[in-house]
Amino acid sequence: MSACNVREPRNTVSGDWSGRSPPTTRSSSPPSRGEAIFNKYIDLIHSKSNLSTNDKQAEPPERPFDFYDDEEFAFGINLLNNNVACVGDNITKLIQMAQEPWPDNVKLFQPYEVEQILLPDNASCLAVQAFLKMCNLPFEVEMRWNAEFMSPSGRVPFIKCGAFVVSELEPIVQFAANKGVTLCARLTTEEKAEMRAYMSLITNVLVNAELYISWVDNDTFNAVTKVRNSSVYPWPLGWLQTRAKRNAVIKRLKALHWYDKTLDQVLADVEQCCNSLSQRLGDRDYFFGATPTELDALVFGHVFTIITTRLPCRKLAETVRRHESLVALAKRVDEQYFKRP
């Protein structure tokens, strides 16, 4: 039998990675501007590839970036300047758009009022609607079952104003102020700081109390929250989404040391908050004089929602109703700006 000449395979553990690459097929269409810049930069790098590693390490670079020579350095600086100029132009355009007058086609997105929206979300939506009405800014309410997932912050409500999407009361107030519309222009610096302090008090007390009643109180959760929150989802998605949202709310309340409170402790905090608001309001129609501010819109949203929403746990509404001046403020705003039948 004749011996066959068999060529032994080459050891490829340290294979030659600098071999020829397979031929590429060039597109007949001309490259875009970005591709042209990238190809030019790659060609420039390849033209300098004959420099040895020892030569590069011999002299430390005098610049913060390790460029091959002045030609590449100039190219990088030029590219950086172009990018900075492009970003600056875009920011300038956004600022100019933000300062344009309020358009007539603004939409406010929120969950369905009849079958879906919950106590905390309804309070926030009413507060934003009251603020826009107090500023005489036109808007249209658009109800969506997935409004919270459309919101950039994950919270409702949010508005779509031209190219901008803004969620929650304080960012919307600032957005309107950029367009020259504000309710607190007549206030002094001290009064503005006081107003923000009371708004923070409401967020830290009333909002957390509404979340506690809706998601922690078992009677309210089983009879109202679970049913309304899952009503827009098919089973078992509704059950899963409600469970995930409840876990997220409980996690927030634990971080704020509200979850371990008893119902009586929550109501005591609400009572103290309402006392502070009632003392500031006094006998005035609004907190800072004869015309409303953002604080009045926020108080209206929470007080009106709490006293008009029927829940198994009625202690929260009873606590708020004991403060007649706050209830009168809510009725005044409702009659003047909402004109409900």
UniProtKB/TrEMBL annotation:
<dbReference type="GO" id="GO:0007005">
    <property type="term" value="P:mitochondrion organization"/>
</dbReference>
<dbReference type="InterPro" id="IPR050931">
    <property type="entry name" value="Mito_Protein_Transport_Metaxin"/>
</dbReference>
<protein>
    <submittedName>
        <fullName>Metaxin-2 isoform X5</fullName>
    </submittedName>
</protein>
<dbReference type="Pfam" id="PF17172">
    <property type="entry name" value="GST_N_4"/>
</dbReference>
<dbReference type="GO" id="GO:0001401">
    <property type="term" value="C:SAM complex"/>
</dbReference>
<feature type="compositionally biased region" description="Low complexity">
    <location>
        <begin position="18"/>
        <end position="34"/>
    </location>
</feature>
<dbReference type="InterPro" id="IPR012336">
    <property type="entry name" value="Thioredoxin-like_fold"/>
</dbReference>
<dbReference type="InterPro" id="IPR040079">
    <property type="entry name" value="Glutathione_S-Trfase"/>
</dbReference>
<feature type="region of interest" description="Disordered">
    <location>
        <begin position="1"/>
        <end position="34"/>
    </location>
</feature>
<dbReference type="InterPro" id="IPR036282">
    <property type="entry name" value="Glutathione-S-Trfase_C_sf"/>
</dbReference>
<dbReference type="InterPro" id="IPR033468">
    <property type="entry name" value="Metaxin_GST"/>
</dbReference>
<feature type="domain" description="Metaxin glutathione S-transferase">
    <location>
        <begin position="271"/>
        <end position="333"/>
    </location>
</feature>
<dbReference type="Pfam" id="PF17171">
    <property type="entry name" value="GST_C_6"/>
</dbReference>
<feature type="domain" description="Thioredoxin-like fold">
    <location>
        <begin position="123"/>
        <end position="219"/>
    </location>
</feature>
